[in-house]
Write a structure and sequence with these properties.
Strand 1 and strand 2 form a beta hairpin. This protein has eleven helices and twelve strands. 43% of the residues lie in helices and 25% in strands. By secondary structure, the chain is α/β, with parallel strands linked by helices.
């Protein structure tokens, strides 16, 4: 049984005529007669009988009609909803953003996307990059913004920012006024870090250990602005990305380049390779990639297909 057979049956019943039904459906009368006859054979019952020049439903046809109408209407509704999804007249996207990233890079992207596709809803989940990556992997999120690198066997990704971490010290610190400082020079300092669920937490500790010391962590936070205030208050030093450091109050905080080694900071957008992406999510990736590429041109982008 095909939906098209039921559609022809419903139209013939509504118009009480094979010829008028065929005309309204832009098909020939032999075609509709054959389709309905095949349906009768499949059901093992006659659906119409002739009454003069018109046709009337049999008792079997009377039973089938309301059910056929429901099926045809449901299929039509499904087609309309799928068309709406394809045309982005509706849709839903779950995106994970680390707090530092969301405030710095995405308000303009989200605003422009919403103006273009006002019926698509975006639910933002703010967590550390490690949790965002895990939630994309498990399917709790469609798309995530994380600190790279990630497992390329699991994720498509594209990089939209490449920077280095810079050193923040309180005004009057012994290193204030220095142009750059080797990482090993910070061995005796007290550090203010992001929490353990942030990728920078492990990245900084690993770099310090490679430089020959275990950093003394006095405080951890999930908010970069709180970290910078604690530095300004003289509670310790911090390492933050260049983008964040540009907004620091230089009268209270010194910003110094880090050398030997520099610690890279790359942000990328990721999504699972083996999971279906909705029309809305695919359009978000294309839209964000284009807009972020204009604002933060990065060489050697990894272009993953949104599939």
């Amino acid at each position: 049984m095909e939906v098209r057979q039921l559609e022809y049956f419903v139209q013939a019943a509504r118009l009480s005529s094979f010829s008028r039904a065929a005309e309204s459906l832009y098909i020939t009368q032999p075609t509709i007669s054959k389709m309905i006859r095949n349906l009768e054979i499949e059901l093992g019952a006659d659906l119409f009988y002739r009454e003069g020049k018109s046709i009337r439903l049999t008792d079997a046809g009377e039973i089938l009609l309301p059910k056929a109408q429901n099926i045809v209407e449901s299929f039509s509704s499904l087609s309309s909803e799928l068309d709406s999804l394809r045309n982005l007249e509706q849709g839903h996207i779950r995106i994970g953003l680390p707090p530092m990233v969301g405030a710095s890079f995405f308000p303009a992207v989200i605003g422009q996307f919403h103006r273009r596709y006002p019926e698509v809803t975006i639910r933002l989940h703010e967590d550390g990059a490690k949790k965002v990556e895990n939630d994309v992997e498990t399917g709790l999120l469609d798309i995530g913004v994380v600190v790279l690198p990630v497992n390329k066997a699991k994720f498509h990704c594209f990089t939209f920012i490449e920077e280095k971490l810079q050193l923040l010290v309180p005004a009057g610190h012994r290193l204030s006024g220095v142009d750059q400082v080797p990482l090993a020079e910070l061995a005796e300092e007290e550090f203010v870090l992001f929490r353990e669920d942030f990728a920078l937490h492990d990245r900084i500790i690993t770099a310090c250990v490679k430089a020959g010391f275990q950093p003394k962590v006095v405080y951890e936070s999930s908010q970069w602005d709180l970290i910078s205030r604690m530095v300004a208050a003289g509670m310790g030093i911090a390492l933050l990305p260049e983008t964040i450091c540009r907004d620091m109050d230089r009268s209270r905080i010194g910003v110094i380049a880090l050398a030997e080694p520099a610690i890279p900071w790359q942000l990328g957008m990721i999504w699972r390779r083996d999971r279906y992406l909705s029309f809305a999510a695919r359009e978000w990736i294309t839209f964000a990639k284009g807009l972020l590429g204009e604002q933060y041109p990065v060489s050697g982008w990894e272009n993953g297909a949104a599939d």
